[in-house]
From TrEMBL:
InterPro entries: ApaG_domain, ApaG_sf, F-box-like_dom_sf, F-box_dom, F-box_SCF_Substrate_Recog, Knr4/Smi1-like_dom, Knr4/Smi1-like_sf. Residues 402-421 have a biased composition (Acidic residues). This is F-box only protein 3. Pfam families: DUF525 (PF04379), F-box-like (PF12937), SMI1_KNR4 (PF09346).
Length: 421
């Protein structure tokens, strides 16, 4: 009786009702023996909506004949990933757009899709299928090519003689090492420091499948703890997209850095403007047993003087004063001449920046202070305020496994705070 009442409605209303059905229900209507319902369920508007909803396709990419054929052409290739395709593809679309605007060289370094044979090889090595969202992502972009001068997707960091660059690695990188056999795949890697981010693909590492964290040495199979970046691969990819879109991420000459500027971290004293950007340094941060840790944070101090300032405002930096407090409440001060051995002169239009770092015995903290300058005309000394800036490492997940300190090095591996020279 209900069916009879439905069929008594005008075509326009039936199509509106069908428009609320999901794909599975609509396919059943297409297969329906009722000729009228079968015809109405083939409405172009319905299948256009589904093509946009499931495949983000607004152009009828795969068929010039009908939106229904277009939908099923997509489904033939991507149907296995229907539950995650939109989130994964949307994140990659955002990443591509951000790179085109901010780092074109990095955008051109992104590889195309992986071959199915490579996916099969990795799954054979692991003895289990890849998480669907991860396999879907590889079928969109399979890491990036390392091209000199083109930049890297996860960012560069240069402090003193330390240089790290996180490259998004192709799936083949994992075929050549032991990672799949211990339940993880590398997402990024640094050729200089041999560290990177990995994703759990089974439960062997002791973390949830899909969890992304930093791995600092390939050979380590037991861990005192992990720096967890995301609880799932999709979350990691979306965080990457958000980071690349954020104007506060420092991009220097189209090269992505790992420095992020706190929007409120700005101070102006006597026409000298100071801003600060910070970055966690995972490859030089350690977690030992008994919950002891040493985390390292880099910071970039930038100073500018507006070109319209009268020349009488010109000044020269003499010394620095820092006050450092970690998240456990430990406090200490640092005083010293110059910054990294330099005495920059600030005059109208001048710009100066430098990088340093500080280790902490906790998961974060904050730092603030001032620089003492001398006015080049009057000889007056005055302090230029450096606003408070914060440090925070990724979430820490401690392991119950016993770990020998030799596997991780000793706590003396990192020098004391304020390595400026």
């Amino acid at each position: 009786m209900a069916a009879a009442c439905l069929l008594e409605l005008p075509d326009e209303l039936i199509i509106k009702i069908l428009d609320y059905l999901d794909m599975q229900c609509l396919v059943r209507c297409v297969a329906c023996t009722c000729q009228r319902l079968n015809q109405l369920s083939n409405s172009e508007n319905i299948w256009k909506k589904l093509s946009v909803l499931y495949w983000l396709d607004t152009e009828r990419t795969h068929s010039s004949d009908s939106w229904k054929e277009n939908f099923f052409a997509w489904h033939k290739k991507w149907g296995k990933y229907m539950g995650c395709y939109v989130k994964v593809k949307s994140a990659w679309n955002r990443i591509e757009k951000a790179l085109e605007e901010r780092s074109p060289g990095t955008r051109t370094s992104l590889r195309g899709p992986v071959e199915q044979s490579e996916l099969d090889t990795i799954e054979t090595m692991m003895g289990c299928p890849l998480p669907l969202e991860l396999a879907c992502s590889y079928l969109i972009h399979n890491g990036q090519d390392v091209v000199p001068g083109k930049g890297c997707l996860l960012g560069n960091l240069e402090v003193y003689d330390h240089h790290s660059m996180e490259v998004a690695v192709p799936l083949a990188f994992n075929v050549k090492n032991v990672l799949p056999k211990i339940g993880i795949l590398a997402l990024s890697w640094c050729p200089y420091t041999n560290y990177g981010q990995v994703v759990c693909v089974n439960e062997k590492p002791g973390l949830p499948i899909g969890c992304v964290y930093y791995l600092t040495q390939v050979r380590r199979q037991k861990f005192a703890g992990y720096f967890v970046v995301a609880s799932s691969y999709v979350e990691w990819l979306e965080k990457l997209a958000t980071r690349l879109e954020d104007p506060e991420l420092i991009v220097d000459s189209s090269k992505i850095t790992r420095f992020y500027h706190e929007p409120t971290c700005v101070a102006v004293t006597r026409d000298v403007k100071v801003t600060v950007a910070t970055s966690f340094v995972p490859c030089l941060s350690h977690i030992w047993k008994n919950n002891k840790m040493r985390t390292l944070f880099a910071y970039q101090i930038s100073m500018t003087m507006d070109e319209n300032v009268p020349p009488v405002g010109s000044c020269k930096l003499l010394s620095r004063h820092w006050e450092i407090t970690d998240s456990s409440g430990q406090y200490h001060e640092v005083n010293g001449e110059a910054v990294i051995g330099l005495y920059p002169v600030m005059k109208p239009g001048a710009k100066f920046s430098y990088c340093s770092w500080t280790p902490l015995d906790s998961d974060g903290g904050f730092m603030e202070g001032h620089f003492t300058f001398v006015n080049l005309k009057t000889g007056e000394n005055f302090d230029v305020i450096c606003p408070r800036f914060h440090f925070k490492c990724p979430e820490i997940s401690l392991s119950s496994s016993d770990v020998d300190d030799e596997q991780y090095g000793s706590e003396e591996d990192i020098d004391d705070e304020d390595d400026e020279y």
